[in-house]
Amino acid sequence: MQIEEQDDGVPEISGNGYPKQIIWRQKVMLLDTFYASQCRGIIKIVCIAMCFFAIVLVCGSQPVNDERGPALFFCFLGILVSFGVLVEYTFMINTHISATKGFIIESLLYVVVSVGLLVSAILLWVFCAAHWANMNPAWATMPALATAALFLCSGLYFVEICVLINDARRCSWRPPQPTNSVLPH
């Protein structure tokens, strides 16, 4: 494969192999274009869409106190984390860090987002949906839907943690070590 000099800044796609190689400004970039169509990529896209939908529902609910703030923060954090990890795997940045560190960072981010969304859903349910159900039942619909969306987002991130752990277990198999046992003569 030869790299031709280009001055116009237009990327050149070379080959039909995997991973896809793009030459842009005399640098070779590798792209994993199949990641978004695999299980983990689809879950990330669904998480991004669901967090955006939850943001819309949370913004549409009438607040009692400041129970919408944590929900909006953790939904936005969930979108950032999912999009960041999607970009990381698509541009194959994960090949430049160790698998253990990448697993720890990714799982820690998913745990923080999942627990944050769960706590935000409980706060919105207790302080907003229950309040409006007692005061004005017509205003309780939107907080109840927002709460359900937050619970679903939290569940999706929990599923993402389970899939990540399953992939890590499958990819980190080590053969059993021989034991030093003394057999009777």
Automatic annotation (TrEMBL):
Annotated protein name in UniProt: MARVEL domain-containing protein
Superkingdom field: Eukaryota
Keywords from the named record: Membrane, Transmembrane, Transmembrane helix
Transmembrane helix as UniProt keyword: yes
Sequence intervals crossing the membrane: 42-64, 70-87, 108-132, 144-165
